[in-house]
Amino acid sequence: MMNEHPERASALLFARSLRATFLARKSDSAILIPQIGQTELYAREAERVIVENKGVVFTNTEVGAVEVTGSKVIGVRLKNGRRVSAKHVISALPYFALRKIMPAGVRNEKPFVDLSKFESSPIISLHLWFDREFMNVDYVGFIGRTLQWVFNRRRIVGDSKTTGYLSAVLSGAYDIVDEPKEKLIPVALQELREVFPEARQAKLIHSVVIKEKRATFSATNEIEPFRPAPETPIRNFYLAGDWTNTGLPATIEGAVMSGFRAADLVENALP
Q: How confident is the model at residue 128 (pLDDT cuts 50, 70, 90)?
């Protein structure tokens, strides 16, 4: 939820998350685990809706600059040299990528000047394939260990061809994000064997370690006053993202909320 150490994390954001999860509707506390990849879960359906409504989706295309005339955005320039004109622009970039594409004249204005104050919190994902199954539940949370959550991907996805495929998540992984794979895997195996004694007979046949050093913004008290609203000094340029002022930590719920807010501003500004 927070992807941050307790001594650094904002207690206010944590309390809001707990209240929204456990003191609202019963369905708000439901745990949903997707059985498909994130591209299928989010991107494909979103792309279909955009295309069906006469929109265009550019893939493998990076924005080089936001083009502004006076106090109005006129479009974006892609790194391949192409210019895309627009009456309104919503940026859903992470904070560390946004400032460098803004015109020099506005980089030192709020909220863009405050982007340098943000810090990132890392996440490590371990993917482990074994020659046999030893975890008889879909997922489990580890307490007081290096591993935090372990998911039985074979059971979740319903893959009958895979013998044993687990994925583990390590949030707020400041202390170990720079450790090589050769040191992380033995730690994971030791903890799995402590929790699941049957794992001592299982042989690891493949592993993948994914390190996201800038996985989320660090949700601390210090940064909270600098999280921006969707509006910017550029009157037709808006911000979205879980790092904006959503009132929540870095969550998918906050990201979606920010997107709706930015879209409402565009809709209200249309003639």
A: very high
